[in-house]
Amino acid sequence: MLRSCFNRYLTAMFCCVTLFGTSVSHAEQVVVYSARIEQLIKPMFDAFTKETGIAVKFVTDKEGALLARLKAEGKNTSADMLITSDAGNLWEAAREGLLRPIESKTLEANIPAYLRDPQNQWFGLSVRARTIIYNTQKVKPADLSTYEALADPKWKERLCLRTSKKVYNQSLVAMMIAELGEAKTEQIVKGWVANLATDPLSDETKAMEFVAAGKCDVTLANTYYYGRLMEKNPSLPLAIFWPNQASNGVHVNISGAGVTRHAHNVPAAIKLLEFLSSEKAQNLFADVNMEYPANPKVKTAPAVAAWGSFKQNPINVTTAGELQAEAVKLMDRAGYR
Ligand code: FE
DSSP readout, 106-118? Predict the structure, then answer.
């Protein structure tokens, strides 16, 4: 529907422009379904159109709604590309057959292997780090070490967590299952639950506000939420601790994209994906949401780099999807709601 309307619009434009004798034979478009909101994506699309002449039409919605829509539309979808956060969501889209493998030397060169699907159905475009956030008046960095150590009884009634219903902690637990095994991970998650100061909270901004207010001392959050909160309230007694630096590294996830199974314009969609991975667009993609560029040749924004450098866990982010169902079951068994 979207495509046919737009085609009609293009045709109308073509007729008019032809009347004036100008060729618009390069008028092409890519249609994107995006779980990233307009203000995070439009600047890059505008830059892409400026460079290539290819128009980008986009629809934004929650990832669940976009996946359902892609599934329902099947072959008739207008979408050439899906953009969403979390490898778990992209893995699910690939598992549902909504994406297609693509070959691109540019993407393979720009995006490290651990941040993309081994079958090349999706590619990470920005990195999100999941860290420990602590109250600087109540906790010393020396008290902290790993995600696992937050299960220690010394944190009893001092931990706040976001609900297990959100994919971020599901992905973290999935990675822990891969690295520590199921039994050990279950023990740790039970320990977290035993240490909770409050019921799990709806979002991580709220969890950090609880930490700042002294209702608990530590929480887990993606760093961009910390960045947004501190921008609004620079005096909050909160700081980032980079966990697992002596072992496997900080749990990272991605925002990323793939070309849809039923894309109408595969070459243009690949071109857009390559552009988004390029040095030119990577800062636009990452900085606007205070994330880290996925392309290692690109420098992190100064405001984000100021939080310090850290070792990332190099386990392939696909694991978050592969073990997501097991993670959800494990969290349920452990009483993490
Ligand atoms: Fe988020």
Answer: HHHHHS-GGGB-T
